[in-house]
Amino acid sequence: MPLQTPPLRGVHAERGAKFTEFGGWDMPVEFDSIRTEHEAVREDVGIFDVSHMGQIHVTGPDATELMQRLTSNDVRRLEVGDSQYAVITDEEGHIIDDTVVYRLPDDDEAVGEPTYLFVPNAGTDEATHERWISYRNEWDLEATVDNRTDEYAMFAVQGPNAADLVADVTEESVTDLSRFEARYGTIDDVSCWIARTGYTGEDGFELIVPWSEAERTWSLFDCQPCGLGARDTLRIEAGLLLAGQDFDLESNPRTPYEAGIGFTVALDTEFVGRDALEKVSEEGSEERLVGFQLIDRGVPRHGYDITNTEGRVVGTVTSGTMSPSLEKAIGLGYVPTEYAEPGTTLQVVVRGQSKKARVETTPFIDTV
Amino acid sequence: MSFEIPDDRRYLESHEWALEENGTVRVGISDFAQDELGDVVFVELPETGDDLTQEDEFGVIESIKAVSDLYAPVSGEVTAVNEDLFDAPELVNEDPFGEGWMLEIDADDTDELEALLSAEEYEDQIA
Q1: DSSP category for residue A181
Q2: Are A47 and A155 in contact (CB under 8 A)?
Q3: Which of A76, A179, A362, B105 is deepest in the core (most CB within 10 A)?
Q4: Which chain B residue's Cα is nearest to A321?
Q5: Residue A2: its pLDDT value, please?
Q6: Predicted pLDDT at A73
Q7: A8-53+150-238 maps to which CATH number?
Q8: Which residues form the Lipoyl-binding domain (chain B) (predicted)?
Q9: Would the CB atoms of B39 and A35 count as touching at under 8 Å?
């Protein structure tokens, strides 16, 4: 299958980016060096092209009910311009995907009919769109569901100086937006959806821009371009999950409680997976995602075994890296809850050798 | 982008270089290889006294994003290991042909180096 290309593929190549396949997309992994890009975001500001993320638009009289019954959080709490992190679960309460749900302003033609835009992960937009359509039909709800992934580019401008930069580029004020608030703004006559969200642990914004205006808009941000490499080191330090890696319905099915994101579950709402999750919430989980640091020299990687101090395999590393900010080898992985307490000593098996590790609280760094 | 390829040494297809002087062969990885890997954060090297066989793995290099095996350009005994790399693996990025060297091998037979690529052949390979 040919790779999908983001609208800025040519601009990135011109800038000297290296590319990688991610979720079926040909995406920039590195522009200068992961360390340089990572530090720009932690200390100043950087911009990421995240156009591989999906965009699904849901509107109509029953849009709220459809969103409520297919995502774990309480959509009714969203006023226009709010957003929330949520997961999409199956009947067993296992995470299919994680997403951010934005409530857009009502359409002028249909005031009173709520409109949502949500952002599933790269490569999952088609399946998610089908899921929404199929449940809408089954439940006989009145809502229009459009997959707009190919209509929008998405940029993340992140770092302590992101607010100043985005404020300079947009015509409207954005610095008054709180975390997870969003509004339409104008960049060089282009209308974009500007949200104070991100995936780095820093302050920052995500901008959803018409695909056809992507190049013009991108060029107005005078800051370090960053690739998926730095996006990964930043999100691991912030203890944020990567779909398909830290949970995966096929290879590593996990509930939001096991994954440490129980806060996305509103049990006082009705949604697919809710009853299973209520049971898990009452009985507790046997395993839990933890952060850890390698004490011995080495770098933990996805798929490495985690053992207890007797050498018995008790878990698996789901994400790991050498942290550029901490200059320590850190990772995430699932272990039985008896080993989940910060300070617990474990081992990670790196190429057949056991390396001492210690469970740490996440996020590993101070975050917004 | 163009990469440095000094012609005073020979190269493996797997991007290690070998610089021979009086039967001792110094080993590292090329400028192209360090650029492909990105920020080097970890190297695992053999110990002095270990015996290596040409084209066998002798260690591992890890960048933030990738793990890569290292291959011996000649057979022989390891006589020196660049221990500076344990605390400063970024030397491989900064100076791959100089301070980023990894090993010295007392070669069993320097004729083995004939099987390696010349600078010109290596340049063609990475072009």
Answers
A1: B
A2: yes
A3: B105
A4: B64
A5: 78
A6: 98
A7: 3.30.1360.120
A8: 24-106
A9: yes
- Contact flag A297-B41 (C-beta cutoff 8 Å): no
The separation between CA A173 and the C-alpha centre of its own chain, rounded to angstroms, equals: 25
C-alpha to C-alpha distance for A166 and A157, rounded to whole angstroms: 8
CA atoms of B92 and B97, how far apart (whole Å): 8
Provide the strand spans (E) within A50-125. Answer: 56-59, 83-89, 95-104, 115-119
Structure tokens at B46: 């053999």
Q: Does residue A3 have a pLDDT over 90? A: no
- Which residues of A contribute to the annotated binding site for substrate? 206
pLDDT of A1: 63
DSSP 8-state symbol, B116: S
Q: Indicate the class that CATH gives domain A286-367.
A: mainly beta
Pair type for strands A224-226 and A46-49: parallel
| Mean pLDDT value across residues A192-215 | 97
Top CATH class of A56-147 equals alpha beta
pLDDT tens-digit readout, A310-320: 999 999 999 99
Question: Taking a C-beta distance cutoff of 8 angstroms, is the pair A132, A60 a contact?
Answer: no
The answer to whether the Cβ–Cβ distance between B64 and A351 falls below 8 Å is: no
CB A205 within 8 A of CB A198: yes
Give the one of B38, B60, B93 whose C-beta lies nearest to A30's C-beta. Answer: B38
Torsion of CA B122, B124, B126, B127, to 10 degrees: 160
Q: Which amino acid is at A339?
A: Y
Domain of B34, in residue numbers:
10-114
Q: Give tens-digit pLDDT for A106-122.
A: 988 888 899 999 999 99
**In B, what residues contact A, Cβ < 8 A?**
1, 38-39, 41-42, 44, 60, 62-65, 67, 86, 93
Is pLDDT above 70 for B1? Answer: no
Which helix (H) or strand (E) segment holds residue A235: the answer is: helix A228-237
Cα distance between residue B43 and residue B40, in whole Å: 8
What is the predicted ipTM? 0.89
Which residue from A minimizes the CA distance to B34?
A: A33
Per domain, the residue ranges of chain A are 8-53+150-238, 56-147, 286-367
Q: Does the beta carbon of A353 lie under 8 angstroms from any beta carbon of chain B?
A: no
Report the C-alpha dihedral over residues A117, A119, A123, A129, rounded to 10 degrees. Answer: -30
Label each residue of A189-201 as H, E or C. CEEEEEECCCCCC
Picking from B44, B65, B67, the nearest residue to A34 by CB comes out as B65
Cβ proximity of A145 and A133 under 8 Å: yes
* B122 falls within a domain: no
Residue type, position A273, single letter:
G
